[in-house]
Amino acid sequence: MFYKDDRLALFIDGSNLHAAAKTLGFDIDYKLLRQEFERRGKLIRAYYYTALLESEEYSPIRPLVDWLNYNGFTMVTKPAREYVDSMGRRRVKGNMDIELAVDAMELAHRLDHAVLFSGDGDFRPLVEALQRQGVRVSVVSTLRSQPPMISDELRRQADNFIELDALREIIGRPPREPRDPPPAPAADG
């Protein structure tokens, strides 16, 4: 489904892709992901969408956001909102769907192929709108989790479905070896 002369863009729903990869038991190497899609066509842009908790001094996603920003990804972030649900649990809300949809539609006239990394069924109308503009759309998510993380409607609407687990060997980070503990100091005798 990819042609070497395709002008492509990646639209990565950060939290959705992270959750799908974690469910499958691997971490994504974003440098390898970018290289893979540069190999498949002419990569115009690689967007990564995520909400950030501004209230926390250190966010575990901050190093990834900074690395992506310096390594050819267009970062789209906004502050996440914290709230307490009806059960008294602390929750975080940070939906990036509108930002992703607006960027995709703005770039559509310059694309042959859009690759959406999300299984969120809310993106089905976006995929349909891109297709009406003449853009082919591939969706990357997983059917191999229980329950599947790709909505059936989104998968049916896409021109092509790419199983995330099938990309594991190409874009997955090798598992880290546990570090050996430092040697014990020599006893004075």
Short description:
This protein is of the alpha/beta class and 189 residues long. The protein has a single domain, classed as Rossmann fold.
List keywords for this structure.
single chain; about 190 residues; alpha/beta; Rossmann fold; six-stranded parallel beta sheet; two-stranded antiparallel ribbon; 7 helices; 8 strands; about 30% helix; globular
What does this structure look like?
This protein has a single domain, classed as Rossmann fold (3-Layer(aba) Sandwich), CATH 3.40.50.1010. With 189 residues, it is of the alpha/beta class. The chain has a 6-stranded parallel sheet, sandwiched between helices. Strands 4-5 form a two-stranded antiparallel ribbon. It is built from 7 helices and 8 strands, in the order βααβαβββαβαβαβα. The protein has helices at 14-24, 30-40, 62-70, 97-107, 124-132, 152-157, 168-171, and strands at residues 7-13, 42-52, 74-79, 81-84, 90-93, 113-117, 136-141, 160-163. α6 links the parallel β7 (136-141) and β8. Helices cover 32% and strands 25% of the residues. The radius of gyration is 19 Å and the shape is globular.
